[in-house]
Amino acid sequence: MNNEEEYSIYWQKVVGDKTLKMDLKELKKVAAGVFQGESDNYKQKLVYKMLEAVKNNDQNQFFYILLKAINKPKEDFKRLWHIFAKNYDVMPDEAFMNFAYTIIIGIMSTYSGDKKMNEEEVKNQQENGGEINE
Amino acid sequence: MTQTTLEIIKGETADIGIKEDRGGSSEKQGLSGNLKFTGNWFIDAGILGFVNLMEEVYGWDLEELQEMISKEPEKIYYGFFPIAFVYGNCKLTNEKLEPPLYEELNNKFRNLSGEKIFDKAWKYIVDNYSTNGRVNLHSKGLFYYFCNFLFFQPRWKEKQQKETFQEILALTELKREVLKHMDKTVNKFLPSADEFSNLPYTKSFVEISTLKKAIPNSNFVFLLTFPMAFIPVRSEKDNMFFYSPNTELTYKVNKKLKIMEERLTKDEKSQNNILRLTWNAVLDSIIETKSIWSIENMYLVTYKLGRNQSIFDVEYIGIPKLQASIILDDTIRKAMNWNIQYRSKKFKGNKFCWVIEEFIKGKPLYPVILNHVNVVLNDNINLSLYPSLYSLILDANILQFRAKKEKESKGLFSKSYFDNYRALNKEIKDDLRHTSYKASLIKGIANDDTKKRIARDLVEALKARDKNIFLNILLRNLNENIDLFDANALEDWIFEKIITNDLSFERYGLILAMNLLRGGKNEQ
Question: Of B187, B276, B339, B432, which one's alpha carbon is 20 to 30 angstroms from that of A105?
Answer without folding.
Answer: B432
